[in-house]
């Protein structure tokens, strides 16, 4: 291995543990040591259980020694997103109202990941109730970008992305309504995947029919993202929207090959978003990679003009349903943007929601027709580079004012409403060394095709191998 243990790919680590060339205790201890070295500088992991993790690692090693069957994630450490329920370990949702909340059950994805052999070491930071693509809250503070600690790590899975980039864990779970897997991946030079809705079922949930928000995997490579997806995905009868395909289908991506693919490039998503020139400059330089890999790339985009209103209406409706009761009882304990989003939902009528749902159907059909002409769509993940950690959100993008905490997320959230898979993959760095992610979008249920394209691009460019110098402690 050329990389230190804390930067070794999860797929490689899992294989070494299974062959007993490494013990789970060595792997877990290496990551705990790394957390001890650098986490205070980025605040990515906010709850940590080293004793419990090492005890679980000893049990994992004993299981291998006894020749018992093990799962694909056997012995790998993971800290779960602090919005996902973890039995016996606090889940705060980044809110002071839940600062001491300890669930008595695991969320389904947490259960699946641990059943596959992963070892829980703690929880990763989130914005309050996962609201917004910048990770800060009054319980734990802000998560900082490992490439520049003065800047945001993105969000809402910002703690997860920063932990991956800094080598604190090899895999991470996350969730994504308006870009919460993709934006932090772009900001931190890691990989984040928003699967097709239903690919990763959600339970428990009060809104099992809702498909705007999804859970998904993050990692430092596309192969590792696919590995984690393989244990997260698969049907569950308690989730009526879950897809029937078993997760094992994602465990093998095959040889990178884009020969003959028709790929659309949409730098401003059909004129619906503003993007900083520095971001576009990095991405446009990458288009030739797809052509060199055998694809044909040309400018094209589905009609996304209705996507803004659809997303904001359905999001506001969900905020009111999920958090309205907390607003009535604890308004002063909620951040202002959460209050605003709930009140936006309360101002909606049933007709407003029905019209947005109908418009979303038309958008899905528009995307379906588009993907009969093109295999993939390329676009920016984020419209900006990582911004100062003290800001709630950028006030201006490409010279245009951003009036709410949602405005600067448009390049991710217009894709969310389509019901299609979308991958953020490292695409290079700005002139001052800040990461930029490329968004690869495919037809609904074509998750494997999107992952394969990302794997091919990653293999050709190797942008993901550039580590943050900040996260390397002095010798």
Describe the model.
The protein has 475 residues and is of the alpha+beta class. It has one domain: Amidase signature (AS) domain (Amidase signature (AS) enzymes, Alpha-Beta Complex). Helices cover 36% and strands 15% of the residues. The protein contains 14 helices and 15 strands. It has helices at 10-18, 24-42, 50-65, 108-115, 158-165, 182-188, 222-232, 277-284, 287-292, 307-330, 336-346, 350-373, 410-416, 447-461, and strands at 45-48, 77-81, 119-124, 144-145, 148-152, 171-176, 191-194, 214-219, 262-265, 296-299, 376-380, 396-397, 400-401, 422-429, 435-441. It has an eight-stranded mixed β-sheet with strand order 6-8-7-14-15-11-9-10, sandwiched between helices. The radius of gyration is 21 Å and the shape is globular. The mean pLDDT is 97. Pfam families: Amidase (PF01425). This is Amidase. Residues 26-451 form the Amidase domain. InterPro entries: Amidase, Amidase_CS, Amidase_dom, AS_sf. One of its GO terms (molecular function) is catalytic activity.
Question: How would you briefly describe this protein structure?
Answer:
This protein has 475 residues and is an alpha+beta fold. The chain has helices spanning 10-18, 24-42, 50-65, 108-115, 158-165, 182-188, 222-232, 277-284, 287-292, 307-330, 336-346, 350-373, 410-416, 447-461, and strands at residues 45-48, 77-81, 119-124, 144-145, 148-152, 171-176, 191-194, 214-219, 262-265, 296-299, 376-380, 396-397, 400-401, 422-429, 435-441. The longest helix has 24 residues, at 307-330.
């Amino acid at each position: 291995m050329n990389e230190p243990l804390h930067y070794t790919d999860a797929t490689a680590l899992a294989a070494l543990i299974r062959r007993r060339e490494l013990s789970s205790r060595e792997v877990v201890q290496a990551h705990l040591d790394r957390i001890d070295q650098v986490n205070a500088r980025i605040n990515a992991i906010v709850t940590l259980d080293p004793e419990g993790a090492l005890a679980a690692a000893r049990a994992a090693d004993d299981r291998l020694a006894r020749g018992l069957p093990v799962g694909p994630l056997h012995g790998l450490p993971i800290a779960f997103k602090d919005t996902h329920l973890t039995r016996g370990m606090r889940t705060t949702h980044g809110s002071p109202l839940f600062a001491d909340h300890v669930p008595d059950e695991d969320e389904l994805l947490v259960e699946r990941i641990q059943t596959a052999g992963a070892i829980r070491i703690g929880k990763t930071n989130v914005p309050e109730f996962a609201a917004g693509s910048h990770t800060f809250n009054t319980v734990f503070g802000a998560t900082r970008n490992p490439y520049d600690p003065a800047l945001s790590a993105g969000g809402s899975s910002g703690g997860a992305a920063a932990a991956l980039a800094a080598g604190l864990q090899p895999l991470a779970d996350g969730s994504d309504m308006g870009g919460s897997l993709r934006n932090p991946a772009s900001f931190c030079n890691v990989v984040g995947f928003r699967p097709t809705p239903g690919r990763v079922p959600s339970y428990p949930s009060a809104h099992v029919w809702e498909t705007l928000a999804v859970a998904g995997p993050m990692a430092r490579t596309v192969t590792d993202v696919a590995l984690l997806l393989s244990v997260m995905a698969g049907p569950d009868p308690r989730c009526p929207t879950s897809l029937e395909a078993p997760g094992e289908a994602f465990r093998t991506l095959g040889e990178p090959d884009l020969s003959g693919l028709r790929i659309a490039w949409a730098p401003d998503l059909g004129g619906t978003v503003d993007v900083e020139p520095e971001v576009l400059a990095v991405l446009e330089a990458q288009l030739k990679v797809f052509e060199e890999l055998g694809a044909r790339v040309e400018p094209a985009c589905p009609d996304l003009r209705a996507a803004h209103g659809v997303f904001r209406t359905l999001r506001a409706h969900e905020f009111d349903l999920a958090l309205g009761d907390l607003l009535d009882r604890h308004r002063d304990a909620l951040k202002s943007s959460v209050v605003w989003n709930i009140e936006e939902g309360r101002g909606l009528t049933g007709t407003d929601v029905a019209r947005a749902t109908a418009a979303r159907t038309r958008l899905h059909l528009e995307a379906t027709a588009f993907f009969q002409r093109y295999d993939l769509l390329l676009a920016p993940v984020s419209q900006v580079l990582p911004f100062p950690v003290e800001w709630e959100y950028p006030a201006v993008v490409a010279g245009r004012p951003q009036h709410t905490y949602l405005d600067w997320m448009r390049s991710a959230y217009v894709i969310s409403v389509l019901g299609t898979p979308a991958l953020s993959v490292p695409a290079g760095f700005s002139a001052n060394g800040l990461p930029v992610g490329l968004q690869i979008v495919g037809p609904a249920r074509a998750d494997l095709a999107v992952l394969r394209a990302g794997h091919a691009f990653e293999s050709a460019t190797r942008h993901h191998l550039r580590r943050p110098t900040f996260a390397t402690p002095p010798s």
